[in-house]
Amino acid sequence: MSEVVVFGSINMDVVTACERHPRIGETVLGKSVAFHPGGKGANQAIAAARCGGKSLLVGSVGADDFGRQMLAHLEANGVETSGVTIARDISTGIAVITVAGQGDNTIVVTPGANARAEAPARLPHIANRTVVLAQLETPITEIARFFTMVRSAGGTTILNPSPHQSLPKRLVCDTSILVLNAHEFAELTARAELEAPQELMAFLELADLPVPCCIITLGPAGFILAERGRPAIHIDGHKVEALDTTGAGDCFAGWLAAELAAGHGLEEAARRANAAAAISVTRAGAGSSIPTLLEVESFLRR
Hints:
By secondary structure, the chain is α/β, with parallel strands linked by helices. The chain has one domain (4-301): UDP-N-acetylmuramoyl-L-alanine:D-glutamate ligase (3-Layer(aba) Sandwich), CATH 3.40.1190.20. Helices cover 33% and strands 25% of the residues. It has helices spanning 40-52, 65-76, 140-152, 169-173, 182-189, 197-206, 248-261, 266-280, 293-301, and strands spanning 4-7, 11-18, 30-38, 55-62, 79-87, 93-99, 105-110, 131-134, 156-159, 177-181, 213-217, 223-227, 233-235.
């Protein structure tokens, strides 16, 4: 059994590039269209596998061409798919992604089979180095049930609360680490979005963290690491030329999980995840943009 288990969504991404995002009611011409394997769960599982050599994905796909393509893609990238079920009466999830000239994106996700994903009844060999990672593109009740099982067995649970929705108290109590961006942090705390690292640090000085650890990713500005009982720290980002930011957060989360499973400390694991995410934005696509361990090691040596 892999030490990194990802419970999450599996989608085919339909990516179109254009000069700028359309306004409401407006049509703009796209420059290209491409199909990329994606879904937050799939992306994070691939990131964990490229860092640690292997990961296990728990999720669901449809019995269609996209589903078959996704399973083949996952297996080719070192992801164990024995935890993926095939739903016969519903399509594989689809994400329609628009990427504008500066690399920023908008995403519309149709869940499809992801809505049928169920947490496994049991996972053998859960230990204190087993790391489980989930997002919110699969049923939240199943995520909560899974986290309770993992935490009771001594494992580490990482929650990426995206897309935003109200979190059950049970799920929060069973979450070891929250990984989210500044927008998601604002939604979670019901406050205006604080974009500057200094503003977020000032807020965290007074905040009572609902979980033992919170990591706020800030894109080019790096990330903030906040732990209960310790001052928050801000780690700068890496200066790269962004081509497509799709999946950068997934790359960070999956890489973090694998680094923790490998025994790295939280800050070191986050620093290395930050480098992996920086490399990913220089390439097109989500899962296809995630670097290998050798690429990250080389990047950090520069």
